[in-house]
């Protein structure tokens, strides 16, 4: 008899889907707001409480009759067909970070790893015209490869093999030249990359990998972007972020923010708004950790989760570098990519620090980038007890931890929501780095934590808890 999902897992799934913390950016339904109602924004998507209930119903439909309980921590591959199909629907309905749900009901790191595979496969399947996968299942753009500093001979060899040079662009603020190569018709990226390397020996080429936000939703909102304002604010510090767009919110009304879209027009998202608020937000009890800084927002998605590719991120990094920031926060994760690695190295050579989250796919997942690149400040998350998040991913090195749970951030519009994930730890660490001015200064204020927290926890008092928000 096929093993079915346990009653505990199903009830836990439904309860957590309706809870403030799920998907790492959900509203506190019925409470927890400052200066206005939370409204029905779910991860940046307008949705009523009734719709949320329907989402739970749709997510659990097809799981099948609940019978004998499966052992706690059972991996998805050990479940029956009906149960696996139900889990797939659950992942589709809650798309952004199913791992948080699973970790919260006691599942294993192996389950997190399988859910990562499922999530990436569904992203590719939902955008089949735009995306394909590399050999490890990571999403890549179907229509292009990237070559770093190609020679004329290498480009000529590529063109003889049927590749088309779509762009040959210099990023002057990085000192980096990349060529975007379209594969021959109907040739899939994996075969195309092999063919390119044969046709142009020695070429430094890679896929155009697509990066994800390390927690929270990307879907565009109908809420306007946060108002842009040029020039330095009183704080004098300059911070850039590569993410989704930032929505208007009272906590950001007085902030100095400049936004630019690199995948079409900038589109406000829940994820970008939350990250920005943790940096420069300021409203009542809620206070960002880098208030007074000028914030430069590079939106690499334009509301489209199939965007956010390496070639787009490189252009965003070039623009960010032109603003001469002290640092760039990147709450995004993806695989190693040659072009991104080169761009990060050039940023560091110009004295611009890069702070990145380690992701939320658990310790069994592959090391995530750009956090894993040498010199990037890799940040994980901890809860209010200073314990490393169970779903925190890993990098090839870990520098610091910051609050990543039991905290609130701004929702597009007027409200606040409980958030969870390393995405939201990274901007807090970035804020303290901007304030201290050096890794040594940041390390000096780090405090011990529980589990893998690198050199320690920074900005430990920066997070505002949902309970504290309600009491203000």
What does this structure look like?
The structure is a single chain. The longest helix has 18 residues, at 109-126. The strands form 7 sheets. Strands 12-16-10-17-19-20-21 form a 7-stranded parallel β-sheet, sandwiched between helices. Strands 4, 5, 6, 7 and 8 form a 5-stranded antiparallel β-sheet that branches. Helix 11 packs across helix 12. A hairpin with a 4-residue loop joins strand 6 (164-171) and strand 7 (176-182). 31% of the residues lie in helices and 21% in strands. The termini are far apart. With 472 residues, the protein is α/β, with parallel strands linked by helices. It has 3 domains: 7-126, no CATH class; 139-209, Alpha-Beta Plaits, CATH 3.30.70; 213-471, Rossmann fold, CATH 3.40.50. The protein is globular. The chain contains 13 helices and 23 strands. Residues 1-100 and 102-106 have low confidence and may be disordered.
